[in-house]
Amino acid sequence: MTCERTRAYTRLIRTLEDLRAVKLQSSEEAQIRFTADQLLFCADIVHDEAARRAYADVDRLCERLVLSGRWTAERAARLQDDVWACGPGLLSLHAA
Predict the structure, then answer these.
(1) How much of the chain is in helix, strand and coil states, percent to nearest 5?
(2) CA distance 51 to 93
(3) Scanning 18, 29, 61, 83, which has the fewest C-beta atoms within 10 Å of its C-beta?
(4) Quick one: 42 exposed, middle or buried, by C-beta within 10 A (0-12, 13-18, 19+)?
(5) How many angstroms separate the Cα of 42 from the Cα of each of 1, 30, 88, 96?
(6) Hey, where are the domains in the chain?
C-alpha cells in the first residue's frame, strides 16, 4: 500500500459519502467499498483474481448506472478511475 493509494481510497470514500442516498443505492455503495478494499490491499492485480473480479463488477455497475440514465458516462468514468487508483495499478500489470 502506498500514500497515493491511501489518498485515492480516502477520495473515493468522500465521493461515496457525497453520493449517498442521492445517486447510489446502499447495495451499490457497499459493492464499490468492497472493491476499493480489495484493491487497496492487493499487491499484484495480475495474480489476485478476487480483486480483478471485484473491479469487473464495479465496471458492470457503472455501465448499468449509465445505461439507466442515473449517471453520466463522465461521472461513471471518474468513479472507475478513483476505484482503480486504490489498487496497485498498471505497474503490477507491467511487472507480469
Answers:
(1) 70, 0, 25
(2) 13
(3) 18
(4) buried
(5) 8, 18, 7, 15
(6) 3-95
pLDDT reading at 66 higher than 70: yes
Task: Give me the phi and psi of 17, to 5 degrees please.
Answer: -65, -40
Alpha-carbon distance of 91 to 77, in angstroms, equals 20
Spatial distance between the Cα atoms of 69 and 35, rounded to a whole number of angstroms: 23
Cell of 86: 486504490
- DSSP helix/strand/coil, 48: coil
Q: Angle, nearest 10°, between helix axes 26-40 and 3-19?
A: 180
pLDDT in tens, 31-64: 999 999 999 999 999 899 999 999 999 999 999 9
pTM over 0.70: yes
The cell numbers describing 55, all together, are 473491479
